Amino acid sequence: MKNTAFRRMVHLGIIFISLHVVLFSQQEVLEPAVGKNGMVSTAHPLATETALRILKEGGNAIDAAVAAAFAIGVVEPDGSGLGGGGCMTIYLKDLNETHYINYYQKAPGLVDEIEYSRKIDKLNAKTALVPGTTAGLITALENYGTLDLSSVTKDAVRYAANGFEIDNTLAGIILDNLEVLQQYKETSDIFLPDGFPLMEGDTLKQSKLANTLKVIAAEGKEGFYDCYIATQIVNAINEAGNKFSLEDLKNYNVKVTDALKGTYRGYEIFSANAPQSGATIIQTMNMLEEIDFKELGHFTESAEVLHLMSEVFLRSYADRYFNVGDPDFSELPLELLTSKSFAKERFLTIDKSKTGEAGYRKTPEGFSIEKEEQGHTTHISIIDKDGNMVSLTQTLGTFFGCGFSVEGILFNSSYANFSSKAEVNKMGAGRQPRSTIAPTIILKDGKPFMCLGTPGGGRIIATLSEIMVNVIDFGMNAEEANQAPRFYCQVNDDFLNLEGRISEPIRAELENKGHHLKLYEDFDLFFGGAQFIIVDWDNHEYFGTADKRRGGMALGY
């Protein structure tokens, strides 16, 4: 009897030790993808493989990014596509130049005539704005690429025409968004054939989208914005309640400007210009520079640090709300927002012992603001053998946009990104709404160091800031920094949102400081899906990571 009990104890001990080793290994051994000639990270393996093929065949980072962007609009149709928009930050190493390409959605000229209700119409055809993806990708290719359009669209056409196998991530998002997908027959026919949602392992074919991509490959921008497809778009979307015109499409223009520049502990940051949120990224990092992380520790180990970072986010998000919009229609105080002196002033307003009495739904002035729509996008990070980098983020707004399709093109839901209260982001003809997307590039000692970005709507700014702190302040490798626990808050939310791996003692201290907490899964899609690359120039190695919160892959060669 004693021997039997002893053997059971030994057996249980062995199991415990084995499990401990496995769990410890899973926690500690986080190895990024490694390459010496190129690195790609996207939210879908097929898009990653497309970009890597382009690099191996001699294309540069811009060629690969454009190819991946066209492809991911097919294989991750919930996040982006021809009916949406986006932006990219480009670094050309030999020229030491950084450029910013803004191809975000724009309001049509007759937007004032749309009978739009924020409550009723935020997920139907009325909420679609004029898309910019096709124009933006082709502009990038023409200005900075080396390959022709047919070469970089080849895989996208193939994935649309022949189909691809749906993974668990897409299957789950389809199930979660049935109401959007059921509204319009063309969309329903694609994702809900015979009335039933496509599931993991099923093949998704998009024949109409394949035909549209073929037209674009042959005719360029005109194939989308000034031909038969444009006429079909205008007729169909207006019948559904919108107010597009052929002139809106024909006159869509891409903005090529300088990226916004800032610094963090000596590293140079280049990020998205307005109306995207690079200014808020820079302001946030300027404020975080006031925290002595080496003394206080990581935010997963110190409630004081997590509290300080949360208070930084509350302030930078509030400043963004009232000061960032379309620069073609408003004078924006970007120089002030991105200055070190302003960041220091704002940081000094933080009470280290408690959160502000106004609460999360109040700005520092006590003005209650509405909650912005939570976007769901996609991100691509690429570096080539010469050190050229592209950080690209594009979106449909929310998952599957507004649910309206024509000619295989699924349209965005970006009207909802305009504000009813902040004058700088008011809806108007030809205006771009503010967006949290912020593709970012970081240089160290004048050389490429990081290429990063993430989807996730309002969480984008917080997530990218946390990743930069993980890498720069705590020396984490790409994979460790990407999979570390995340948190998020802003003035137009009710809670300080935490991933489940933030420990109970930390949570208790935060509650004592007045924070209202909302707990998520250990790795939750709510916090985005970051794709990024770190460069080690001493050994000429690239390290890539794809966020496990979202299906994706990083590959190098």
Quick summary of this structure?
The chain has 557 residues and is an alpha+beta fold. The protein has 20 helices and 21 strands.
What features would you describe in this structure?
The chain has 557 residues and is of the alpha+beta class. It has a domain at 31-112 and 254-557: Glutamine Phosphoribosylpyrophosphate, subunit 1, domain 1. The protein is 38% helix and 17% strand. It has 20 helices and 21 strands. The protein has a seven-stranded antiparallel beta sheet. Strands 7-4-3-11-10-2-21 form a seven-stranded antiparallel beta sheet. The longest helix is centred in the N-terminal third of the chain and has 27 residues, at 2-28. Mean pLDDT is 91; it is low at 1-28 and 362-374.
Topology of helices and strands:
Blueprint: H1 2-28, E1 33-35, E2 39-42, H2 45-56, H3 61-75, E3 85-92, E4 97-103, H4 133-144, H5 149-162, E5 164-165, H6 168-176, H7 178-181, H8 185-191, E6 203-204, H9 207-219, H10 222-225, H11 228-239, H12 246-250, E7 255-257, E8 260-264, E9 267-271, H13 278-288, H14 293-296, H15 303-323, H16 334-337, H17 340-347, E10 377-383, E11 389-395, E12 405-406, E13 409-410, E14 440-444, E15 447-453, H18 459-473, H19 478-483, E16 487-488, E17 496-498, H20 504-512, E18 517-519, E19 531-536, E20 541-546, E21 553-556
Parallel strand pairs: 17-18
Antiparallel strand pairs: 1-20, 2-10, 2-21, 3-4, 3-11, 4-7, 5-6, 8-9, 9-14, 10-11, 12-13, 14-15, 15-19, 16-17, 19-20
